[in-house]
Amino acid sequence: MSHTKRSRPRSAVAPGPLLVWHALALSACGPGEASSGAAGAPGDAETPPSAEGAAVEGADLSTGTHVVLLGTGTPNPEPAASGPATAVLVDGRAYIVDAGPGLVRRAAEAADRYGAEGLTAARLDIAFLTHLHSDHTVGLPDLIHTPWVAEREAPLKLFGPDGTVAMATHLTAAWAADLENRLSGQQPATPDGWRVDAVDIDPGVIYEDERVRVTAFAVPHTGWPEAYGYRFDGGGRSVVISGDTAPAEAIVEMCAGCDVLVHEVYSATTFRDRPPEWQSYHAQAHTSTVELAELAGRARPGILVLHHQLGWGATPEEMLAEIRAAGYDGPLAYGRDLDVY
């Protein structure tokens, strides 16, 4: 095992024009919540075109900075939405935020669709966790082990809140028999691709290379002593990813005119019909459409992308309309799996 230390003195481990977009209305429920997402019907909500359309026309995702939504889903097993995971591609290299279920295969699908070699399994070697809820982390064993089988050579670099190091340690230990079989058996295997260099972080600049600088900032997510959002600066663009959060002034400060703001959201309209106990939870753990409209109006992103959407039956068009009605008039998109911005 290799050991490194960063941030805290904790050991890391190794074992333009507007187009109409239509998507599924996804619910972003916590464990035990009922899912009531509905399929979105064609509507007239306006959202800027994602780079998906540009990619079909031959755009090169190997240069500059692009955001690829690998998963926009929730704890519920929505067939059309993998668990929360986002790739920030900077000059062709992928930086992954969160590890929801289906992550590696969604990345492979995006790699094929867009010709993005940085999203092929063997190249997935750096990731950041916003918090340790299961829907954001159950894809982590996949991210650790599948790219190694696909011949990843370098250890996975993993950054996240307190508990990230322990989680990585347990996950490599849980697959000890697999590791022993592949390392000592007939199957060719790279010697270090299974390892994890994990770091429990503090707020501030937590990672920097020749392409990108990554800044972590604390956000409020009820029940978690630590939850983070991330800002990426590189390739001529700035990207802010909220993670799961109640309305946070830190989002406004960290975006401050950023190019892309990927933010979680729930419908303020259907929220009214939720049981009181769930209303109490969501009001403290997540951000409503009305709250997000006010927040984004001050953050002024180049585009606001809705992510990890909690609709409870509201369609994408209805959720977009709620944000418009609350006063936000900037570029806006309802994110869905494999969208690119």
Features of this protein?
alpha/beta; 15 strands; disordered N terminus; six-stranded mixed beta sheet; 341 residues
Largest sheet: 7 strands, mixed
Shape descriptor reads: globular
Strand line-up of the largest beta sheet: 9-10-11-12-13-14-15
Q: What portion of residues belong to β-strands?
A: 15-25%
Structural class determined from secondary elements: alpha/beta
Mean pLDDT score, rounded? 85
Helical content stands at: 25-40%
How does this model look, in words?
With 341 residues, this protein is of the alpha/beta class. The chain is built from 9 helices and 15 strands. Strands 9-10-11-12-13-14-15 form a 7-stranded mixed sheet, covered by helices on one side. Helix 6 (249-255) packs parallel to helix 8 and helix 8 (289-299) crosses helix 9. The chain is globular, with a radius of gyration of 19 Å. The model is unreliable at 1-45 and 49-54 (pLDDT under 50).
